[in-house]
Amino acid sequence: MAGKGRGVGAFTFNIEALGIGRGSMPDSRVGPMPLFPNIDFKPVPLKAGEEEDYMLALKQEMRGTMQQLPHNIKCHANKAEVERYTERYLKQRQLDDANWTPDWSLLPKELMPQKKKVVKPVKKKKAVKISRKETEAMLTKLDELEKKDDGNPEKSDDETEKKKVNEGEEEEEIEAEEYDEEDVEEENDYIDSYFDNGEDFGGAGSDENVDGEGTY
Amino acid sequence: MTAQEVRLCGLLLQEHFGEMVEKVGTHLLKSGAQNLRMILHETGISLDLLKKSLCVLVQHGACVFSSGRKGPGSPTEYRTSCDRILRILRYPRYIYTAKTLYGDTGELIIEELLQRGHMTMSSTVKTVADRLTQNMEDGRSMDYNDVSNSFSNLVETHFLQRCPPPPRAGPKESVTPAPHPVPGTPTPPISTALPTAESFPDCYKVPHVTLTGRGKRPLSSEDVDDQRNAKKAKMDSETHGDEGICWQVNFERFHLHFRDQAIISAVANKLDQTSSEIVRTMLRMSEVTTSPSATCTKPLSANEIFRSLPTNYNITRPILDQYLTLLVDDPMEFVGKAGESGGGMYVVNMHRALANLARATLESVVQERFGSRSARIFRLLLRKRHLEQKQVEDFAMIPAKEAKDMLYSLLSQNLVQLQEVPKTPDYAPSRTFYLYTVNQLPTARMLLQNCYKTVANLIERRLYESKESKRLLEKSQRIEAILASLQASGAEPEQLTEVEEMITAPEKQQLDALRLHINKLDSAENQVDETIFLIESYVNSTKTTS
Where is the composition biased (Acidic residues) (chain A) (predicted)? Predict the structure, then answer.
């Protein structure tokens, strides 16, 4: 702070060595540079001649053809749903070129499109078969267990969850049956005596207050 | 890869190959060599599209693949480089050069190869013959032999080369078991550098191709001839004896040709036509004997030059000697004297010529942007290397205040640098010399980046202009299509005029203005590319010399 008055505008070196005086400083910049600054010297016009015209035509043609080639991979999302009017007049040849197979000897093998093998349905059937047998066995086991010790409902819940992993129609039926059984048994975690439904409170249960003090 | 190069490559890829390839290409440019899984993970494109894009990039030579860094068992890695993609800017120049050297046939061959990346000789010949036949009068067609001859000529002069075979990536998974290596033969070393096309001895050998026939005209009526075409297609699928041998354009050879042209035209501009003819002769004689990165051509004696001059230039021997002396004494140093035997041994100094041409380009840039007096200061600094502020004012004969202004504007644009030379070890400002200097090579590099930025801006502006008037352009295209179909089916002129009037007059004006703008922008891209070529050649020539 002590040097604020004297330090402002002073340079750390002798500016006369660079040949500039204090008064010849350029204006300080206010804000960022304009996007299109005014230039003092306009650019030289382009060369215009037969060669340049020919190369211009070549360039535009090349751009056009390369956009039509199958090399130009278009995003599939861009294809319009409705067939546009111009497409009727497009040359058939352009549409035929869409399939292009490169020379695979010059490309690495991993770039070849892989054919998807259809294996899934066979596996599914096997899985269903196995699960069917398993679930039947488990069901019979469960019935026996339930009859034995009045069901630990948690165990049956776990087992039903495990069976949910195996898909199949019969499993749903089996689960439905199990749910029905659970409803019938009415086994739950809550102790019956905990629930107080207010019947014993100042109502029909007791005959002490008959004066008519209102029950709230 | 600088940011400007990557941006320009992205725009070029997008224009020519679509957005998918552009995404993949820019990602590879920014992140170096990567294998398929990493690219898939980082770009988030579906595997199918990614594979297709990589195929397109490899087909066009923009991307090379090799076995991974960890050894032959690791997945293949892909890498791109800016250089190959930036060549796309120069395609029209290559095609035009082929036209001037080999006529329409050569032009179409080069055009087809540039569009498709690489193709076999037979498919190229067939396509080119068909295209030439299309443009010929009815009843005439192009023979395959003519096209094959042009193709062979292009290969002989090294404008076309074979594609290098792919590097062996990983163990072979073929059905037949790999042959057991014979003990005693040395295993080839796994080189980290990718083999270039030149490193194979057969790269310029034309295969023996059995190709007879003439070009086919596309048939106008579609219905009746579809069946005939189907039959023909089956017959045409015979092999021609050159399967698997793909050809690509040899860009380096074209660049040598452009360089020679630049030197010859520079001599013609500075001196006169006869001197340029002499230099052209010298360059033609040393085409085969000079390697591409040589500093200067092999020495040629004046006797040889005299004998090889074109016959319509009948200058006498003493006059030739005088011209050669003039060329040697010229400050541009295109031609140098290497000895006295054989009437004087003369060489063309390639690298020095390129350096001088680049210097001239830099000076012209400064002149056009800052004025001729700033250009005078710039030339002075180039010549005198280091000058103090006072010395600059004196030598350039410019008043002090203006000289200061110009120097500072050049300094702010980084065309001129300050060099501190201390008198005392503590770099005290009052006891230090501040010298202005120009370093040609870094300035040339900076200018090259400016050129890339310029071209990228031009392309973006062109895309913007087309997008603004997209609706109008589509309408005009539709109307042209309608007109064409009407004319083909034979309509009355009143109908044609009616259709033409669907575009109103102000719309026509707008379309014309748009066309003019787009043509100007395109032409500007071509011409900036000429500067790019010059400066790139200069920068590359300094890399090879120590």
Answer: 168-190
